TrEMBL record:
It comes from the Bacteria. It comes from Chitinophaga parva. The keyword Membrane applies. The chain crosses the membrane at residues 52-76, 82-102, 158-176, 182-202, 214-233, 253-270, 277-296, 302-320. This is DUF2157 domain-containing protein. Keywords: Membrane, Transmembrane, Transmembrane helix.
Length: 381
């Protein structure tokens, strides 16, 4: 299903893990180089700055092609069908260009990235409904398109767009029904929890190893949407306006949720050594503080920001000093997230590189300073 060459993706993953193992001084430089030579990677994947330039240039060229097509069809663009046809055809051409450049070895070079997003945008614009109150349909189409592009290219941003479109489509569908508006926060929490559980289940599956860059993004997005769905301010916006006296139902629940969920994230992140949960929880502590302050003013905003920043800097400094020496499985060093499948591969590669066959001994025996073998001695003594 994925467009990129699978063997090249496997080789890239092996090389990344080999470099990470070398940084941890788990292997020698000779072993690292031997494995890299045994599993080479080909293709075009330039520096980030060059990727950005190629991305912008490709988008400009695609827009020029769209403009030329619009000029050629100017007389027929007065109808909606003609405009949709132009957008869809241009989107398909951009998709074909993406497939061509991928087949030529481009791996997130900027060109294939730009063609991917251009194609998705043009196809969505060509298929999107133009009528009012069709947000749910538009987001559903966006979810399907982004999901297909994710399966084809393993783009993490496409995966996040697909998840957010799915969530938005469901919530907009419920929002159109008066009875469903009160269930919006719980629906958002339930859908986010389901997506998070599914991503956790698939994350370490060997069959999904080509999408390992997608899972952290979707996991983080689902954790954020789970919290935002139950945050008091968001729940108030979805189900009522507390400033006008219409506070959302279950108000104590939402306040408790707003305050406790970041703490639960941090606890679970420490308990299971999950960096995604830990970092998300730390970030949401600030969101909880700002939510409380929006309704209960204890300090001026400037002082609140200064105090919160000083406290976070102090805590970070003390943790870095404390974890300079690893304690209880924690360290201030960045972790390496290699899958179980790749770790097993890497271990076998290191063993195979370390256990080279010994050189065959010479088939002769020596007599003092000379040599002999078979039926007689040699000519040196």
């Amino acid at each position: 299903m994925i467009a990129y060459h699978k063997q090249q993706l496997d080789n890239r993953a092996i090389q990344e893990d080999v470099v990470a193992a070398f940084r941890r001084k788990a292997i020698t430089a000779e072993e690292k180089q031997a494995i890299i030579n045994a599993y080479p990677t080909r293709g075009y994947s330039p520096h980030f700055a060059i990727r950005v330039g190629l991305f912008v240039l490709t988008v400009v060229i695609a827009m020029c092609v769209l403009g030329i097509g619009a000029l050629c069809m100017m007389s027929g663009l007065d109808s909606e069908a003609a405009l949709r046809s132009l957008l869809i055809i241009t989107g398909l051409v951009a998709y074909g260009g993406m497939e061509f450049y991928i087949s030529q070895g481009h791996f997130h070079s900027g060109v294939d990235d730009a063609l991917r997003w251009t194609s998705a945008g043009l196809l969505l614009a060509g298929m999107a409904p133009f009528e009012r109150d069709t947000e749910a349909t538009l987001l559903a189409v966006s979810c399907v398109l982004a999901g297909l592009f994710t399966l084809r290219t393993a783009d993490p941003l496409m995966a996040v767009a697909s998840f957010l479109s799915l969530l938005g489509s469901v919530l907009f569908s419920l929002h159109q029904d008066i009875a469903g508006q009160s269930t919006l926060p719980f629906t958002g929490m339930a859908l986010s929890a389901i997506v998070y559980s599914a991503m956790r289940y698939l994350h370490h599956k060997p069959a999904c190893r080509y999408y390992k860059g997608v899972f952290p993004w979707v996991l983080t997005a689902s954790l954020l949407t789970f919290y935002m769905a139950g945050n008091y301010a968001v729940a108030a916006a979805m189900t009522g306006n507390p400033y006008e006296g219409n506070a959302p139902a279950h108000m104590p629940f939402y306040w408790t949720f707003t305050a406790l969920v970041p703490v639960v994230y941090i606890f679970l992140g420490i308990r299971f050594k999950d960096a995604i949960l830990l970092r998300t929880g730390l970030g949401l502590v600030a969101a909880a503080i700002f939510t409380v302050r929006a309704y209960y003013h204890a300090l001026p905003l400037e002082w609140a920001l200064v105090i919160a920043g000083a406290v976070l800097i102090f805590i970070s400094y003390m943790l870095i000093r404390y974890l300079k020496t690893p304690r209880h499985g924690f360290s201030d060093e960045p972790g390496e997230d290699a899958s179980r499948f790749t770790k097993l591969q890497l271990e076998s590669l290191i063993i195979s590189q370390s256990m080279q066959a010994p050189a065959a001994p010479q088939d002769h025996f020596d007599f003092g300073g000379g040599s002999g073998g078979g039926g007689g001695a040699g000519g040196t003594f």
